[in-house]
Amino acid sequence: MKKCLHVWNKCRVMLLLLLAAGIAKAQIRHEIDSLFGIYHNAKNADSVRLQALDDIAWDYLSVNPDSTIIMSEELLQYARKVKGLKWASKAYNMKGTAYFNKSDYPHALENYQQSLQVREELKDRYGVAVVLGNIGNVYQAIHDDKKTLDYELRSLHIMQEIKNKVGIARALGNIGLVYYSAKDYPKALDYQQQSLTLMKEIGDREGEAVCLIDISSIQGHNKQYEEAIASLQQALQIAREINNDRILSACLQGIANNYYSQQKFDLAIEYLKKSNEVAREVGELSFQKNLHETLYRIYKKKHDPVKALEEYEQYVILKDSIFKGDYQKDIAQKELQFEYARKATADSVKHANEKQIRDAEFSRQEAMLRQEETLRYVLYGGLALIAVFALFMFNRFKITQKQKHIIEVQKHMVDEKQKEIVDSINYAKRIQYALLANEEMMNRYLPEHFVFFKPKDIVSGDFYWATAQENAFYLACCDSTGHGVPGAFMSLLNIGFLSEAVNEKNIDKPNEAFNYVRRRLISSISKEEQKDGFDGILLKMKKQEDAWNITYAASNNAPVLVSGGAIRSLDVDKMPVGKGERMNDFNLFELPVRTGDMLYLYTDGYADQFGGEKGKKFKYKALHELLLQISTEPVHVQKQRLADAFDAWKGSLEQVDDVLVIGLRIT
Questions:
Q1: Which residue, 111, 95, 152, 98, is CA-closest to 129?
Q2: How far apart are CA 275 and CA 248, in angstroms?
Q3: For the range 425-429, what are the long-range contacts, defined as Cβ-Cβ under 8 Å and sequence gap of 24 or more?
Q4: 75 neighbors 86 (Cβ within 8 angstroms)
Q5: In whole angstroms, what is the distance from residue 429 CA to residue 489 CA?
Q6: 555 beta partners
Q7: Fewer CB within 10 Å, N- or C-terminus of the chain?
Q8: What is the pLDDT of residues 97-108, one digit of tens each?
Q9: Tens digits of per-residue pLDDT, 61-92?
Q10: What 3-state class would DSSP assign to 476?
């Protein structure tokens, strides 16, 4: 149900963006040719021609986002020409929406930020609230719940101040989605019901259907399948009444997901095929991708490998066509560019004021020179000397210019080399992150967990790795020798040897896997007395009936268990995985656990961080006290508490090592 909500959210955002802009679909059904005629008629007023361009762009939005981008750029250029800031802000907002529909989130964010800046200049509070909500939708799409909630709350605050019920209802629904993503289902349901009540009050049928779908997702998560299907049937009826195919497809897919959760596979297939027909008509790739993935899972469970393979191939094709970028990185870059542009604007105003002061001083000096004009003849001799000096200075200037050119060429070469190095390291980061534990696998085996991962540099010597073999789940938390680029190379090598041990050599015991990796490290790189390798923990978790059977091997770093309100460090072998003073075989330790216990794995970076008032290490005792204190909190809250405590301790000091803390609740 959660996956269905994430896919539906994009269509949901599309509908609410149209509503927030004050342009419903029924209002923009103009003939494209007629609108182009209005725009190209130079006799029409600028405002009429701008409105025609705006209508053309919105007409294209739901069927051809690329055409919307082209027409929005045309609108933007025209608006700049006639100095129409209001139209420029609308053009930026519309381009952002088109890029959002194309799943190009960095460009969507860039254009929304431009629209926000213009609307702030215009003091358009409603427009500012709309764009804040749109930016929140971008962060919702990339699952950044913290930033999503920040922008949606800011939007809601403004909408409440100006008493705009449509905007309030939209913001309430979006906030409900954030709490759903954060697994706070009571709050999510409360916000969605508030939004639904307001949508009914203002007679917004589309918004009412959207809220019903969101509520059904919460009901489905709570295994209230019949209630969820009833909510979706209400939304389905509304979609048919208002002839909205996007909502119709989402409802059909939601009903199918609830039948799938009840293992009513034939009914699920029936509704998925109906949804696919509608999704193809409206060109909704995200819906199609999701339903093909669900069909693949159904046919796999029905033991129909041929159909399962067909559906999986369709899923992969659609997935590759949607997700083609490192959006987290690109969006962070767009944020920095936007903040820099704001600062540059402020600086330009400051420089303009300074220039006015200089010009006034220059005018005063000119007046003084005119008063002294009668003395010029006395100064002719001095001027001759000045001329000689000027020639000398000109010669020096030419020499300086030549030297400056040489320096600039050398600086350019250095900058290019530095850029190549940084680009290479960033690419290495992408490779390293691709080899870390897959989040989908982690969620499947460990539904309640968190990973607090904070590398010291761009790439990291710390790593976490996971795999599954024969109903057993393996999880490693390790600290390679070094950090930065050398540490990253070691982490890639260590990940490769761990995968080789478990996945290729079928070594099922964690201690034997560590023994194997140590032999491979020594034979490969530990020459001339080098002691490269890693410290770490490797868990093997296997669920037997209602209980977990957990065994582990530990090298220098000990797991920590919180059980019954007490915390204790577990057994550990005091030797590295690699060449060291001790070379005994690693022990296999058993870990008895109970439901509700919290198990923590970590490297030494957190405890070794310098900070506080006296600039001392954080230390393991303080870390254990913090873990015991937060152990009863939800796992996402625990992660944030660890991050806040680390930043507060470090303060302005430099981070000394890579930091990795993994927490998992036994369920």
A1: 152
A2: 8
A3: 425/458, 425/459, 425/485, 426/329, 426/458, 428/458, 428/459, 428/485, 428/488, 429/458, 429/459, 429/488
A4: no
A5: 11
A6: 536, 573
A7: C
A8: 989 888 888 999
A9: 766 788 889 988 998 999 899 888 999 999 89
A10: strand
